[in-house]
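FW: tagging you since you asked about this chain on Friday. Here's the raw sequence from the shared folder, copied in full. Didn't touch anything.
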Amino acid sequence: MAEDNVLEHLYQVILSRRGADPAQSNTARLFAKGKKKIAQKLGEEAVETVIEGVKGDKDGVIAESADLLYHLLVLWAALDVKPDAVWDALRSREGISGIAEKAARPRD
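HL: got it, structure written out here
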């Protein structure tokens, strides 16, 4: 199964947990706590991934990356962000230097 298919499948599983019993599903528990808590958990997982990277722990990075991606998909689902919208955004950046892409972003 290709990576995007794994993520698509996980996203569908996550969507199926919306409205489920929080006592039976960690994903449902996250949804019940709201977007702020989901975003906080995503941040925690990002920090844990960074820590493992700084330590140079490949297995730790793999495990924390899986947690990070899971929590990212939960946040997407909570905000009704479809994976295809993210894939399209990535595709639109293909062939554009990161410096040029950043410079083209609107400034506040």
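FW: The chain has six helices and no strands.
HL: agreed, and The chain has a mean pLDDT of 92.
FW: great, closing this out.
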